Amino acid sequence: MPSVKQKLSELLKVDGVNTAVVVGRDGFVIDGLTNGAAMDVEAIGAVISTGVGTAEVMGRELKVGAMSQGMMEYKDGIILMSFLGREAILACVAEANANLGNVRYQIKKFSPEIQATI
Amino acid sequence: MATDRIDTRAVQGVLYGIYKALHGVVGENSAAVMRRAAPDILDMLGKLGVDFSCVDDVNKLSAKLGETMVQAGMCENMAFTLNGSDLTADITQCSFYPLTMKLKEEGIPPFGCPFAALTIAIAEKNLGKRARLKFLEPVGKPGDTRLIVELTDK
After folding, report:
1. Across the 154 residues of chain B, what is the mean pLDDT of every consecutive 10-residue run?
2. Residue B80 in contact with residue B153, Cβ under 8 Å?
3. Which of B25, B27, B35 sits opposite A46 (nearest CB)?
4. Which class does domain B7-153 fall in?
5. B70, B48 in Cβ contact below 8 A?
6. Which residue has the higher pLDDT, A43 or B37?
7. Contacts of A56 in chain B (CB under 8 A)
8. Closest Cβ opposite residue B30 in set A24, A42, A53
9. Residue A56 and residue B36: Cβ atoms within 8 Å?
10. Using CB atoms, which residue from B24, B32, B133 is nearest to A49?
11. DSSP string across A48-72
């Protein structure tokens, strides 16, 4: 069975994706890979988990149902987040000019495969 | 200053408001905030004279943290056992039990448990391990709690 790292490594081969991290809801970083960028693992775990948590609460308060995927656009990149079951989150950073449709599709495709390796 | 005669009811009142608000904003992922806060709690305790820097193995962690928590009036006893990679702490008569139960009634899990936060922070900082909370539930008599932290190599 492939490891989380192997699956993340495949995800990093998607055009435009430069970081992929799997985080528990408690902020514990299960695994993460980047294309060379430095990563403060503990800080990333906390911000991804709390960011998704807040987005989830926002959806609940605004009565739009359960969250399936989240996306935030910044000047220099895009952050996409997806749930891996009830207990973990997959977060990816893509370049600002990445093909967003493809990145979203790939995350959706990879999510069950990564979830199976946790 | 009256720092030596603080009433735990006041602390529990403050914590209740903070924990409830935090859970209202961050939801089920509130534990990530506590995980992030724990190293700073440890630093602040160090500045206040509660130093954990001598802790470099699980036995010292057990002795020092258990002794500190009891002296601080946080509980009557905190006993650790290490079984493989699982570090279990049995907390007797936790001073924050009423707060935990009140939050639980409102559907808020005990994500802010200081015993768990400090155990994880010390294990990660001083023992060089990765630490993750696996279990935290009341067990036995009212006021008694068990927590299990999984320790893995970095």
Report:
1. 76 95 95 93 89 84 89 92 93 94 95 93 90 93 95 88
2. no
3. B35
4. alpha beta
5. no
6. B37
7. 27-29
8. A53
9. no
10. B32
11. HHHHHHHHHHHHHHTT-----EEEE
**Over the stretch A95-114, which tens digit does the pLDDT of each residue have?**
999 999 999 999 999 999 99
Look up residue A74 and give its amino acid.
Answer: Y
Sheet holding B145-153, edge to edge: B77-83, B86-92, B145-153, B129-138
Q: Where do the structural domains in chain A lie, given as residue ranges?
A: 4-117
Tokens of A46: 């906390």
A residues 37-56 near B, CB within 8 Å? Answer: 42-43, 45-46, 49-50, 52-54, 56
How big is the CA angle at A3 (ends B26 and B85), to the nearest 5 degrees? 70
Question: What pLDDT sits at residue B2?
Answer: 67
> Per-domain residue ranges for chain B?
7-153
**Quick count: other Cβ atoms within 10 Å of Cβ A97?**
9
B124 touches B137 (CB < 8 A): no
Level-2 CATH architecture, domain A4-117: 2-Layer Sandwich (3.30)
Write the DSSP assignment of A21-50 as a string of letters: EEEETTS-EEEEEESS----HHHHHHHHHH
